[in-house]
Structure formats: structure tokens, C-alpha cells
Predict the structure.
Amino acid sequence: MADRAADVRVRDFKEVDLGMTVDEAIAEAERCLQCKKPLCVAGCPVCIDIPGFIAEVAEGNFRKAAAIVKEQNMLPAICGRVCPQETQCEGVCILGKKETAIRIGALERFVADWEQQNGLVSPEKAEPTGKRVAVVGSGPAGITAAAELARAGHAVTIFESLHEAGGVLTYGIPAFRLPKEIVKTEIDQVLEMGVGLKKNYLVGRSLSAADLLKYDAVFLATGAGLPSFMGIPGENLPGVYSANEFLTRVNLMHADRFPVFDTPVKHGARVAVVGGGNVAMDAARVARRLGAKVTLIYRRREEDMPARLAEVHHAKEEGIEFATCTNPTRIIGDQFVTGIECVKMTMCKLDASGRPSPQEEKGSEFTLDVDMVIIAIGTSPNPLLVSLIPGLERTRKGNVVVDENGKTSIPHVYAGGDIATGAATVIEAMGTAKKAAAAINRMLREE
Amino acid sequence: MYTVNTASEIAERIYEFWIRAPQVARNARAGQFLILRIDEQGERIPLTISAVNGDAVRVVFMAVGKTTQHLATLKAGDALADVVGPLGKPSEIENFGTACVVGGGAGIACLPIIARELKEAGNHVIGIIGARNAGLLILEDEMREICDELFITTDDGSKGFHGYAADVLKRELDHRTIDRVWIIGPAIMMKVTSAATVPYGVKTFVSLNPIMVDGTGMCGSCRVTVGGETKFACVDGPEFDAHQVDFVELMQRQRIYTDQEKAAVERFAEHTCRCGEGGHHHG
Ligand SMILES: Cc1cc2nc3c(=O)[nH]c(=O)nc-3n(C[C@H](O)[C@H](O)[C@H](O)COP(=O)(O)OP(=O)(O)OC[C@H]3O[C@@H](n4cnc5c(N)ncnc54)[C@H](O)[C@@H]3O)c2cc1C
Ligand SMILES: Cc1cc2nc3c(=O)[nH]c(=O)nc-3n(C[C@H](O)[C@H](O)[C@H](O)COP(=O)(O)OP(=O)(O)OC[C@H]3O[C@@H](n4cnc5c(N)ncnc54)[C@H](O)[C@@H]3O)c2cc1C
Ligand code: SF4
Ligand code: SF4
Ligand code: FES
Ligand SMILES: [Mg+2]
């Protein structure tokens, strides 16, 4: 288990974390207590048989280990890399109480990578049922539901508006954290189960909502891709990006390799990134790789940042400066961004989420000279399709309202992932998709 | 893959392509656009849907930079990697009474589909199409066939009225009632021409052309200010109330990548002459 040296890796987009060797994996697996009532499994939203697969790793049966993982999770190489394990499986591992938790994510990644290198084995499929299911969106929720439904014997078609599948896995999370070949291999494995993928289909426009509803069942997994802006002066100046735009230009369109690839992106010399989540860390580290000196501006304290711990740590190693307890008030510039005016924040009483709510400190304004600003303060559910489906109930924030099985206000329409929960995580999106797929399967079999 | 059914140069540097894209053709309405990508290295560029026939759509584009110049080298039978659409909101078409559609340069390409829907809704349709000179005027016959009246303007007087579309629009507004106006062309032309309808209080639409990436509302590259509010042109537009649009900001944002665009065109020119592969660059 090793990270490439920070001063080397900031010059490319190759993976930072090199993963475990065979010996390391076996040694780590041998530490597992093989609990009778494993807490770790309850901490995994897709309920992987964690002690089960770890036991096989300890024995060196990597193929068997991979089969056990894929029983519950068709995207293990992805999850092993991007799950916030510290708040999921590893956070509740019994060993974490005394010493260090088992590195479940790293082990999962190890077996998934081993299987990719040694030949993938496709899971079994049930007899065809003759039922047609439409899945809208090819992010982790859509892919997971499609895999589950195909396994159950239904004819599944995924519709994706972009020219590549994967959702945030493809356009959002950078290659140095999640190599794109890994994503492609795991998605291809699902497609090889007979799932149809129609790219360049913006449902609601390329396929009408009425035609969508003609499928026997529909799973909406359109994500939370609508970027929020702060609403401060200067935000529309050239040089101000949403994190989604900046990351899409680089990850999906390969603007880092302009002019070999046609899409341009600005290479700032001094970049401010606003936010403290995974998205902000990714944007900051991409900007760093394009040659910038980067300052991350976050309105609370470092310990309040919602980003994965590993990414905060990596960002610091790579020389990203943190301006915490700081909030932007104005972006300055005439033709192009030249600076960002900020104010210091003091932490006061706890808010509803249990975090201290920041308050502006009077007279503490200061200006950072920057030539580019990236806003990564969050996203909300994609409104386009869901607003075009008559009778589909939504919350005030735009999330599709679902019951515990992902069922919406329309009988044969289900939803999962960020469109239902609001921006969350890959594994939570997959967990909701699995529940919905199980419910869709029950519905289609009862008919 | 999306096949180019026909490709022709209809005026200097202006090309008309019919592209096979069934899911776009089946659902396209006036005012909508598509986004295409030529090949795996390509960028995504938006083009207005100018007409529909069966499972094909027409686009008309001006070769201005790397991607449109590259596109212009394609021939009938060639394929595009990606076409997605129809994107954006359809034009708001009703029977208003008298409607006027005004186009400048390549922007004229956007008019036929709107004019046709206006006509079908029962409007008396006036067309005003303008170009720098007679040689750059496009789709004149088609517009003459659809519109009840058609006026032509050229900046140099080589055909029709000697002057700008805005002049003819003002002249018409002075002596008759026009209930709705659409103005489509370069940003500066839309800014100037839509100013002409302000004193008459006529609701006027323009189709905005900010820089886009996804075209589905997920990046905000296309944000424009309309009536003091930020809108995403690809999903909230592209048509907006002309009198509310911040054109200065739009034009400023259109220039974000001027340096890179210049470099890309130069590299493309070098590449096409050296390898003679008709613009298909490798690595
Ligand atoms: C930069 C970034 C970094 C992140 N890092 C992490 C991390 O490290 N760990 C983690 O667990 N989570 C992370 N997340 C969050 C995680 O990626 C999301 O929670 C997850 O991807 C949600 O999955 P989804 O399938 O619901 O939606 P998405 O992944 O957003 O996919 C939705 C898909 O639907 C498509 N679509 C939308 N509308 C339509 C339509 N009308 N027709 C057809 N297609 C449509 C979109 O193009 C997209 O491909 C990160 C998010 C971002 C943006
Ligand atoms: C909704 C919409 C509809 C359009 N319809 C038409 C049309 O029917 N016919 C036509 O000729 N042109 C149309 N355009 C403009 C067309 O997209 C640009 O001319 C084209 O992208 C230029 O690409 P390029 O690489 O050849 O030129 P470049 O040299 O890269 O750019 C030239 C100029 O075009 C604009 N531009 C560049 N990239 C983009 C992009 N990704 N998205 C939008 N604008 C960009 C910029 O202002 C730039 O300065 C439309 C634009 C929009 C937003
Ligand atoms: S999928 Fe995520 S939460 Fe589940 S075991 Fe793997 S790393 Fe842990
Ligand atoms: S809780 Fe920890 S020690 Fe127990 S089975 Fe799970 S991973 Fe092994
Ligand atoms: S082009 Fe990305 S939001 Fe409009
Ligand atoms: Mg270009």
C-alpha cells in the first residue's frame, strides 16, 4: 500500500494510491477476527459479505473472494477506491475500537483489481422474463439497478445523455483517484450481461416522458448534477467555473491534453476553490496538476470538512493551501478574474446538523489575488426530466419523493441515487438502487 | 455513429449538412439545438436545428474555428461520433397575429423552422434576412416560400435594402402592428436589432449562443444574465426576452478562450496541409 510521492504525482493524472501487494493483502486479511455478528456488514449500504470475502483473501483464493464481493456489488474496483470507508464499513469494524480497523476498502479494491487482471467472470442470469425496464442515467445508481434487474432476467435499457457512461464516476471524479479504464471495465461487465446502453439520449427531450412511461418499469437515476453558485457579485466573470464545468472539461473532454483534444480549459496561475467536500478537493487537485498554486476556501473548520479524510490528506501533501473559517463575498475583475474578496468567519453555536454555524467577523475583509475561481459548494437534483413527468412528487429541494423501496408517486416508476437523496455518495446511490431493483423485480414478477 | 447524409457549401464558409439522427429528428421543435462531437478528440459544439426531414435534421454552420472548419471537411457518408438533442426549450409559438423573424448571417439558418411553426399556428409571418453582401445571403428561396413577406438587406447594398436588418424592422414597426419578433444572429447584431423594438413595446425573442459543454444543465458554462437573474441558456433557453438580456456579459463570456481557439485553428491548418487527411488528426 503506497501513495506515489506528492511532488511526482502533481505532474500527471496517474493514480495516486498504488494499492496493496499480494503479501500485504493476505497479511491484512489475516488480521480480521471473522466476527460471528460482523458489524462491518451493517456499515456497508450494499451488505457485502465482508468476513466471507476477507477469509478467501487470507487463503489466497482471490477469484472466490471476487465472486463473493460481486454477489452484492458489481462495482467493487470503484467502491474500493472512492467509498468513504471511515464512515461506512471501516468506521464500525470492531477492531477500530482498540487498534486499527481492517482496511476493507483496500482489500475490496485488491480483489477487484486482481480479477480485472486475471480474467473477469460474469455473474449468472435468470431466465428472461420478457419485461422491459428503462433506467435513466448511467451513474452508479443506474448501473447498479441495471445489473440487478438484468440478473433477474429483465430486458434493461439504460439511457444516458452524455457520450460516455458512468455519471460522476466518469465526468466528476478525476483519473488520479479513479482511473477511467477501471470505470469502463466495470461498466462493460454490466453491459455484457445484456444491458442495452443508449448514449446521447437526454430523456425528456430525445425520448419523451410519455414514451419513457410506456416501459413496464422505470428507474430514475439522473443524479444531482445542477451546480449551485453563491450569488455573490462577479460570479459570471470569465475565469469563474463551477466545479462540474471544470472537472467535466478535464475528465470527460480531456482539456488537460488540449490541443490534441479540442476542448479548452483555463490554466490558472493562482486558483481559489470554494468548498470543503470531495468535489472541492478534486477540483483543487486538478487545478494543481494544471500548474496552479491553489487555495481552498472553506467557511468552517478543517475538521468540519465533509470530504473523505484520505483526500484532505492528499490535497495537503500536494501543496493545496487551506483558508478555513473564510467565506468569499465578491469576485473581482474587469475582463477576467483578478481576485476574490473574503471575510473571516467565527464559529458560534451548533446548527441543526450538530456543526458550529459560522458567522462573519466584522471588518475582517481581505482579498486574495487569483486569476481563476472554482465554485464547489454543492449541487442539486437535475430538474429537467423529473419536472417533465406529470404527477411525479418532489420535495422543495427538488428530490424525487420515494418510499423505503425507492417507489415514487407513480406506480411503476422508481428512483434512486442522488436524484432521490440529494448529493450523497457512490455507495449510498448503489444501496438505494439495489433496494429499488429488488422492489421492481417483485412488482414485475407479481404482475 | 451518426451519418452525414449530405454536405454542401451554400455560401462562402457557410455549410449545410443533413445528419441522420432519428432520436433528434423525431422530437425536434422550433428553437431547439443539438450538440455534436466529430470524433474521440473532438469538443462538443451546439448547432441549431434548422429543419427536419424523416430521421434526419439539418444544421447550417459557419466555419469560424477549429471544430467548424474540421466539420466542413466532412463529406456525405462520413460519420460523426456523437449527436445529442433536441436540446433547449422550444420557441413559444402561438397565433399572435403578425410575427416577424429577423436573421443575420448564419443566424438566418435558425429561422425557417420557427417561421414554419408560426405560419402553421396561423400568424402572418414577415421575414427579414440580412448579410454583409449578396454572396453571403442564405436560404432566401426557402424563406420566401414560408413567409408571407420577405425583406432582404445587405450591408453593402449588393442586394435588397442597403443597410441593416434593424433599419427595415424599424421601418415596418413604424407603419404597422407587429405582435412578436424573433431576432437571431451574432450577439452584437441581436443587441442592436432588439434595441429597435423597445420603443414599440413589442415582445422580442433572441436565441443566445454562449459557450456550452454538456447542454443539459450540468455545468453552468452557458450561464447568462436575463432580467438580473443567472440562467443556464441550454436548459432555460436558448431563447430569452431580448429586452432583459445582458448582452455585454454574453459577449465577454464568448471570448473566454480566444487564445486557445486561435492556437487550435493554426494547428489545424498546419495539420491539414501536411498530412492531407482532410482534418482527421491523430494523437
Ligand atoms: C467531483 C465529485 C467527487 C466525488 N467524490 C466522491 C467520493 O470520493 N466518494 C463517494 O462516495 N462519492 C463521491 N461523490 C458523490 C458521488 O459521485 C455521487 O453521489 C454519485 O455519483 C451519485 O450517483 P447517481 O447514479 O445517483 O448519479 P450520477 O453519478 O450523477 O449520474 C447521473 C447520470 O444521469 C445522467 N442524466 C441526467 N439526466 C438525464 C436525462 N434526463 N436523460 C439521460 N441521462 C440523464 C447524467 O448525465 C449522469 O450520467 C463525488 C461527486 C463529485 C461530483
Ligand atoms: C444554442 C446554440 C446554437 C448555435 N447554433 C449555431 C448554428 O446554427 N450555426 C452556427 O454556425 N453556429 C451556431 N452556434 C455557434 C457555434 O456553436 C460555434 O460557432 C462553434 O462552437 C464554434 O466552434 P469552433 O471550434 O469552430 O470555433 P472556435 O474558434 O473554437 O470558437 C469561435 C467562437 O465560437 C464560440 N464557441 C466556441 N466553442 C463553443 C461552444 N462549445 N459552444 C458554443 N459556442 C462556442 C465562442 O464564442 C468562440 O469565440 C450556436 C451556439 C449555440 C450556443
Ligand atoms: S462497498 Fe464501500 S462500504 Fe461496502 S464494504 Fe466496500 S468499501 Fe465498505
Ligand atoms: S468487523 Fe472488522 S474484524 Fe469483524 S468481521 Fe468485520 S472486518 Fe473483520
Ligand atoms: S452547457 Fe452546461 S449547463 Fe448549459
Ligand atoms: Mg472550438
Notes: The longest strand of chain B covers residues 2-11. The first helix of chain B runs from residue 22 to 27. Residues 5 and 62 of chain B are 18 Å apart (CA to CA). Confidence is low (pLDDT under 50) at residues 276-283 of chain B.
